């Protein structure tokens, strides 16, 4: 079922939160490279968008705190300056998504695929990226939990390749976090 921007906002404001599997009606012409379906600076906290297909959507500055985006597919979505704290993006696919300055505190990205995703100055404090696939992801100046030993991002069993990590390390890959740990131990023992 397709839904327009206004229908979504009206139903959300009336108290509905479950929009799982919904499709957004987006008009995008070749002449306009802009995201036509704009939901910028709106409060959509605790919304359920599990299994949705989001393409050419602009959500810049919106509140998605506690949102459920399990298994969502996002392509060319602008999530910069968005609050995704405590959000569940388990198994989500984020392709060419902008998460610059996004708040991903305690977000679940377990088994998620982040491909060409921008995370400039994003807050990943307490985020769980275990079993995820990260390809061409920029971690420049990300904020991570300073209480975590060695300021590491929690991503056990993740597959990483063609990435620049927060400490400046470039990973040609593909490598798993375990491969990196073994390689680091080997270098330290030499």
Q: Can you walk through the features of this model?
A:
The chain has 190 residues and is of the alpha/beta class. The chain has a single domain (1-190), classed as Pectate Lyase C-like, CATH 2.160.20. The protein contains 2 helices and 13 strands; from the N terminus they run E-H-E-E-E-E-E-E-E-E-E-E-E-E-H. It has helices at residues 5-13, 177-189; strands at residues 2-3, 23-24, 37-38, 53-55, 57-58, 73-75, 93-95, 113-115, 133-135, 159-161, 163-164, 170-171, 175-176. It has a 7-stranded mixed β-sheet. Strand 11 (163-164) and strand 12 form a beta hairpin. The protein is elongated, with a radius of gyration of 17 Å. The relative contact order is 0.09.
Strand and helix map with partners:
Layout: E1 2-3, H1 5-13, E2 23-24, E3 37-38, E4 53-55, E5 57-58, E6 73-75, E7 93-95, E8 113-115, E9 133-135, E10 159-161, E11 163-164, E12 170-171, E13 175-176, H2 177-189
Parallel strand pairs: 1-2, 3-5, 4-6, 6-7, 7-8, 8-9, 9-10
Antiparallel strand pairs: 10-13, 11-12
Under CATH, the homologous superfamily reads E3 ubiquitin-protein ligase SopA
Rounded Rg: 17 Å
CATH architecture group name? 3 Solenoid
**Order of strands, widest sheet:** 4-6-7-8-9-10-13
Q: What is this entry, summarized?
A:
This protein is α/β, with parallel strands linked by helices and 190 residues long. It has a single domain (1-190), classed as E3 ubiquitin-protein ligase SopA (Pectate Lyase C-like, 3 Solenoid), CATH 2.160.20.80.
């Amino acid at each position: 079922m397709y839904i327009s921007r206004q229908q979504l906002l009206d139903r959300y404001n009336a108290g509905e939160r479950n929009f799982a599997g919904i499709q957004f009606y987006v008009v995008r012409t070749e002449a306009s490279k802009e995201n036509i379906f704009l939901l910028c600076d709106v409060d959509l906290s605790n919304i359920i968008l599990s299994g949705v297909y989001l393409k050419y959507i602009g959500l810049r500055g919106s509140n998605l705190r506690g949102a459920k985006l399990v298994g969502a597919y996002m392509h060319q979505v602008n999530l910069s300056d968005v609050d995704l704290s405590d959000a569940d993006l388990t198994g989500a696919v984020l392709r060419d998504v902008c998460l610059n300055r996004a708040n991903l505190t305690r977000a679940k990205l377990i088994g998620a695929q982040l491909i060409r995703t921008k995370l400039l100055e994003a807050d990943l404090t307490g985020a769980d990226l275990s079993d995820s696939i990260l390809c061409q992801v920029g971690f420049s100046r990300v904020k991570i939990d300073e209480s975590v030993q060695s300021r590491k991002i929690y991503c056990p069993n993740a597959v990483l390749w063609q990435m620049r990590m927060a400490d400046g390390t470039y990973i040609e890959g593909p490598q798993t976090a375990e491969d990196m740990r073994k390689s680091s131990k080997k270098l330290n023992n030499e």
